[in-house]
Design goal:
The structure holds two protein chains of two kinds. By secondary structure, chain A is α/β, with parallel strands linked by helices. Helix content of chain A is 34%, strand content 19%. In chain A, strand 15, helix 17 and strand 16 form a beta-alpha-beta unit. By secondary structure, chain B is α/β, with parallel strands linked by helices. Chain B has a single domain, classed as Pyruvate-ferredoxin oxidoreductase, PFOR, domain III (Pyruvate-ferredoxin Oxidoreductase, domain 3, 3-Layer(aba) Sandwich). The longest helix of chain B is centred in the first third of the chain and has 14 residues. Classes of the chains: A alpha/beta, B alpha/beta.
């Protein structure tokens, strides 16, 4: 059998294709984004980027109502956006398999929280599957779709960063058999959730969970592995791998379905071991279900509830709890940061040539309170720019800014969000500002892509997921259509133009929008236009003003000016030639190679 | 070798992900089970990045623990120090002689440690440290981006796997038009690795 090294995300895409998924929709979000990008490379199915996750889940539901196997894909916080759709789908069921794939981010590598999305499965009375490696990620897509059809329910496939972005070997299966589209079957009493129908459906979904609980004990995906009897461990997902690594002698109940849990298997394990542990990341989700069975199990009291697990965290927690003996000191790492008290941190930064940088420089100069949003531009909060002061969730910026303004603070504030985020969930907020005649200035940082998650197209890029040309929404015209009269478009790289536009908008005494436009410097089409600038050492006097931009291409050189201050230098590999620093330099010391 | 655990550390944008892909592919060519783990997204924007590659007959965890890596490939000096505790005592380290000052250092708020300070810390973990100027070698080859493959070439001399496994994995993962320069970079890295540094 042909085996390939696939990431969890690639494996989910492969599994969806092999299982005959016909329609897939989603919104990019780390760590889930590569699933749809990979799925779109297969033939025989329809895959799209939706403007947000709620739209994506509705699309998948519609396809499943029409008899096509369907997939919706998002990161954990995307499921918050899509929750309304997720809950009604649980009530209605569908005519074909409906799988909602959600990728959690324990450790918050690229997220604003580390919510445990398994709670949504329990909340909406929907089964939850969790893969422990790429092979299982592929296999559980097929199983999830089968369960969905057999029990007439959506199924939640929950991965985490370490599954999504780890690669392991996967045995590839056969391509799907071709299937024809089905005639639409009308069943209004099942699919129209008016109260009378919904009241009839609720007992059905409760019975469904009871039936799924019974199935869980027979399910081949839940596996009881007998080893030593001193310790028994219940685990799922990547935590199972850590359990095998740290407790190789323990008997283990490996769950692929984590809601509902197999009560019989848990009881069997509990009865056969001296001590029962639950190893899981984030919430004590399995532990609570096990405790509700009246079984004594230990989990959250031993292992941390915050952050990502790894073999070291698991081992050290077990040592502290007396489950494992303390490590032989000879084996312990001897490393200490002897002599270097604190290493300079290296947080993520706005890239060299990032068009957001100039806008933040102006906002800081004007001493404005900035209500920000989710995207690369969130990094504008970091020093030296320090020009973003709130950020909570997708699309929040405009409405938070409107609320701040209505609170009557004398300090002026603005909303800042990206093009993709504006289309995701910023539009209703802007509509609210226009409708209620707030004074909020909204700056849309239009870099012509969804940059942070890896340059996915969106409705204002004129391209689809598959790269086809399509209509391109005009952001300025859209803002006008929503009722904003004062709309101006500027070049993000032009410091003076940005400053003039912001000053004009703030004095307009009316709701305003600035579209600050410039393509992300890392887009493949932009890279060939890069041309590095250089410092003229005769002119630079080491004043350091250019460092206020926080550009990673600019650093202090070993050369000093006559006043003893370090001259600036430019890394020619990183510099894109955006020339924002040249506009900041009072001495005209930053020039193109040919001019310097 | 029963198993080999690698950790790659560097700065977002240096090509650590491609390097870990090639390393994973090499393990497969050598007949091992392989797992590879990395983080995408926000940390990629010029921040510290790590990826891990494990080779063994059967690999469970995609992540290794503190003090468990057999080999570390450091694309940047400060990151070598930051993540040195992942290496097992006496493990082997390949360090790119390349400093990328974080923005906090450029802004004058923090200090980039001196070479001898860093050397002292690293030698506290292991005496087996190889330093090479991969960035300069890549520039001399006419393509600064192949720095990552120069480093892999150096690493290949420290792992008892036939060079053909490395080259096969390399060719599977680089675009056709850069195949020649990548091959040259790999061979240049193999040549460039010198004896371990001494205290």
């Amino acid at each position: 059998m042909l085996k390939r090294l696939l990431s969890g995300n690639e494996a989910v895409a492969r599994g969806a294709w092999e299982a005959g998924v016909r329609v897939a929709s989603g919104y990019p979000g780390t760590p889930s984004s590569e699933i749809l990008e990979n799925l779109a490379r297969y033939d025989g199915l329809y895959a799209e980027w939706a403007p947000n996750e709620k739209v994506a889940v509705d699309v998948a539901i519609g396809a499943a109502y029409a008899g096509a196997r369907a997939l919706a894909v998002m990161k954990h916080v995307g499921l918050n956006v899509a929750a309304d759709a997720f809950f009604y789908a649980s009530m209605t069921g569908a005519e074909a398999g409906l799988l909602i794939v959600v990728a959690d981010d324990p450790g918050m590598h690229s997220s604003q929280n580390e919510q445990d999305s398994r709670r949504y499965a329990q909340f909406a009375r929907v089964p939850c599957l969790e893969p422990a490696d790429s092979q299982e990620a592929k296999d559980l897509v097929a199983l999830g779709l089968e369960l969905s059809e057999r029990f007439d329910t959506p199924v939640l496939l929950r991965t985490t960063t370490r599954i999504a972005h780890s690669s392991s070997l996967v045995a590839l299966g056969e391509p799907p058999a071709p299937s024809a589209a089905k005639a639409y079957r009308v069943d209004a009493s099942k699919y129209v959730m008016v109260p009378a129908n919904a009241r009839r459906r609720h007992p059905v979904i409760e019975e469904r969970i009871t039936a799924l609980s019974a199935w869980a004990d027979e399910a081949p995906c839940n596996r009881l592995e007998w080893r030593g009897r001193r310790l028994g461990i219940v685990a799922s997902g990547v935590a199972y791998q850590y359990a095998r690594e740290v407790f190789p002698e323990a008997s283990t109940l490996k769950l692929a379905m984590t809601y509902p849990i197999p009560a019989g298997l848990v009881r069997t394990l509990a009865a056969g071991v001296e001590r029962l542990l639950v190893l899981e990341e984030l919430d004590p989700f399995l532990e609570e279900q096990i405790r509700l069975l009246g079984i004594h199990a230990e989990g959250a009291a031993i292992f941390p509830r915050c952050g990502e697990l790894d073999p070291t965290v698991v081992r050290e927690s077990a040592i502290r709890a007396g489950i494992l003996p303390a490590m032989d000191t000879a084996q312990q790492p001897t490393f200490t940061e002897n002599g270097i008290r604190s290493l300079p941190a290296r947080p993520p930064v706005l890239c060299a040539g990032c068009p957001h940088r100039a806008v933040f420089y102006v906002l800081r100069k004007l001493n404005l309170v900035v209500n920000g949003d989710i995207g690369c531009y969130t990094l504008g909060y970091l020093p030296p720019l320090s020009a973003l002061h709130t950020q909570g969730c997708m699309g929040a910026s405009i409405s938070v800014a409107h609320g701040v303004a209505q609170a009557g603070s004398p300090q002026q504030n603005v909303a800042v969000l990206g093009d993709s985020t504006f289309l995701h969930s910023g539009i209703p907020g802007l509509l609210n500002v226009a409708y209620n005649q707030g004074r909020t200035l909204t700056i849309i940082l239009d870099n012509e892509t969804t940059a942070m998650t890896g340059h996915q197209p969106h409705p204002a890029t004129g391209r689809t997921l598959r790269g086809q040309e399509t209509v391109r929404v005009d952001l300025a015209a859209l803002a006008r259509a929503l009722g904003i009269a004062h709309v101006q478009t500027v070049d993000s790289y032009d410091l003076r133009a940005v400053e003039q536009a912001v000053r004009a908008a703030l004095s307009a005494q009316a709701p305003a929008v600035i579209v600050a436009q410039r393509a992300c410097a890392l887009l493949p089409g932009v890279r060939p236009t890069w041309h590095a600038l250089a410092i003229d050492p005769q002119r630079c006097n080491g004043c350091g003003r250019c460092f206020e931009l926080g550009c990673p291409a600019l650093s202090r050189s070993k050369q000093t000016a006559h006043n003893g201050r370090a001259l600036a230098q430019i890394d020619p590999l990183q510099c894109t030639g955006c020339a924002v620093c040249a506009q900041v330099c009072a001495r005209g010391a930053i020039k193109g190679d040919q001019e310097a | 070798m029963d198993k080999v655990d690698f950790v790659l550390v560097g700065v977002g944008g240096q090509g650590t992900i491609l390097a870990s892909d090639i390393l994973a592919g090499t393990g497969l060519h050598a007949g091992y089970d392989v797992k590879k783990s990395e983080v995408h997204g926000m940390s990629q924007r010029g921040g510290s990045v790590t990826s891990q590659v494990r080779w063994a007959e059967h690999v469970h965890s995609p992540l290794i623990g503190q003090g468990e890596a057999d080999l570390m490939l450091a694309f940047e000096k400060l990151e070598a120090v930051r993540f040195a505790s992942l290496l097992r005592p006496g493990g082997v380290m390949v360090v790119n002689d390349h400093a990328i000052p974080p923005v906090s250092v450029s802004a004058g708020n923090e200090h980039y440690p001196a070479d001898d300070e860093m050397r002292r810390v690293l030698l506290g973990v292991t005496p087996h440290i190889h330093v090479l100027p991969a960035a300069r070698i890549a520039r001399d080859l006419g393509n600064a981006r192949v720095e990552n493959v120069v480093l892999l070439g150096a690493l290949s001399r420290l792992v008892e796997i036939d060079a053909s496994c490395w080259l096969a994995a390399l060719e599977e993962r680089v675009p056709e038009r850069t195949r020649e320069v990548n091959r040259a970079a790999f061979l240049a890295g193999r040549e460039a690795i010198g004896s371990p540094i001494s205290s």
